[in-house]
Structures are given as C-alpha cells and as structure tokens.
Amino acid sequence: MTQSETVTPLSSGNRKLLAAGLGAMLIGLAMPGYAQDRGPGSEGSASLGYVGTSGNTDTQTFETQLRYTLRTTEWVHNLGLQALLAEQDSISSGERYVLEGKSDFRVGENSYFFGKGNYTDDRFTGYDYQVSAATGYGYYWSNTDELLLETFAGAGYRQNAFVDGGEEGEVMLSLGQNLEWAITNMTSLTQSLSSEIGEDLTSSRFEIGLISNIIGEISTKIAFQARHLSEVPAGRKNTDTQTSISLVYQF
C-alpha cells in the first residue's frame, strides 16, 4: 500500500457498515435518555466454540472469547480477548487474536469521556498487526439491567504493520455503538458496531449475538460477525464474515 495525499473513497461494503453505525447513532438521538440504573459491580464471561467437518474436506475451527466489566461510581472498565484458529486439511486457514479495552469516566448522568485501545493480529488479512488508541465522548441512551444502549465518538492514532515489513501510521476517527437487550429472563441480544476511519485505511466491525440460558451460569450463543478493511494487499478480500455457535460461562 502506498501513502496518498488524498482521501481514499470508501468502498461500497464499508459505506454500508458505516451507514449502519451512523443510523444507530441517529436512532439513539431520537430516544430519550434514561437514568443510569446499573450500579457498581463486576461481570464477565468466557466462551468456547468449535466447528468440525470431515469427508471430502476436513476442517476444524476453534474460537474463544473472554470479557470482563468492572463498574464503580465514576468508572466503567471493559476488557476483551478473542482468539480464532482454523484449519483445512491440516493446513492453517485462519488465525486471529484481538485484545481490546475501554475505560469510561462519568461526567454526567448519562455522559462520559472514554479512552480505548485495540491490538489485532490477523494473519490472513495481509497485515502483521494493527494497534490503535483513541479518546472521546460517549453517551448512554439507556443503562438499565434490561437495556443498555450507548454510542461514542472520538479521535486517535493507528499503526498498521504489513507482513512484508512495511509500516504506516495515521490519525483516525473512532465511532462505536453497543447494545445489550434482556429480551426475557432466559434470552438476551447483544450487538455492536465500531469503525476506525483514517485517510489510508478504514476498518469496521459488526457483531450480533443471541444468548440463551441452558442451566445456571451456562448458556449458548449464536453469533454473526463481519469485519471490513477498505484497503488490503492484492489477493486478499476486503470483508471477512464469521457465524458461530458457542458455549458461554457467565460469572
């Protein structure tokens, strides 16, 4: 990838992801604010998913995620870790590791300032790694046990390292939205969208999942995830999608 002094036009797929995120924010703007009913405390989850096929093609896919949230009267800290390994006929076909964190400092009944960081190592996108940090402002449109809806926007910096040894850094705009909806006592819906928009590269991620309790702290999760990069090396695809079923332990 070469450096450019002009803004690279967004691709069709990336425009759709960005439009979805902006649409969610506009919907939030039309909703009344709710008091923050979630008090201090902590919660977390660990999940493990596996898909295997045999016959004409032997494939194996493992995915694990760890998430932890700590809330105090003034702060909310979120930490997430994701790992995915895939093999086809004993040859690695996918390997991705993601470490991300976000801390919010409450400045109003529903508003906060945030700082966030992300490290992504995806061996099959043509990038050796991507690391970013951003800060900005966020708002809780609802923050109850039944419904959490937040949007946030800020600015930061991202470093992109390529598998061929080259690197580039750029200032970026960071947008995000998170939704957690307790549909019933046994079923909940989670959804998130984030986009980091730079002059040379825009990366977007959309996730949605349905969690159903089985017994006690054990649940199943059916999830769909889409990741889009506006620029990738020759021979790579801009968009990766993933559909998964996993077991989740909540603590």
Write a structural description.
The chain is mainly beta and 251 residues long. The protein has a single domain, classed as Beta Barrel (Porin), CATH 2.40.160.40. The protein is built from one helix and twelve strands, in the order αββββββββββββ. Strands 1-2-3-4-5-6-7-8-9-10-11-12 form a twelve-stranded antiparallel barrel. Strand 1 (41-53) and strand 2 (59-71) form a beta hairpin. The longest helix is centred in the N-terminal third of the chain and has 18 residues, at 12-29. The model is unreliable at 1-10 and 24-36 (pLDDT under 50).
Strand order of the largest sheet: 1-2-3-4-5-6-7-8-9-10-11-12
Alpha plus pi helix count: 1
Helical/strand content category: mainly beta
The CATH topology turns out to be Porin
Low-confidence stretches: 1-10, 24-36
The CATH homology group name: monomeric porin ompg
Order of helices and strands: HEEEEEEEEEEEE
**CATH class label:** Mainly Beta
Largest sheet: 12 strands, antiparallel, barrel
Going by CATH, the architecture would be: Beta Barrel
- Indicate how many domains the architecture comprises: 1
What's the alpha carbon Rg, rounded to whole Å? 19 Å
Core attributes:
251 residues; mainly beta; Porin; twelve-stranded antiparallel β-barrel; 1 helix; 12 strands; 67% strand; disordered N terminus
Question: What would a concise description of this structure say?
Answer:
It is built from one helix and twelve strands. Helices cover 7% and strands 67% of the residues.
Write the topology of this structure:
Blueprint: H1 12-29, E1 41-53, E2 59-71, E3 75-88, E4 91-106, E5 111-122, E6 127-143, E7 147-162, E8 167-182, E9 187-198, E10 202-215, E11 218-229, E12 239-250
Antiparallel strand pairs: 1-2, 1-12, 2-3, 3-4, 4-5, 5-6, 6-7, 7-8, 8-9, 9-10, 10-11, 11-12
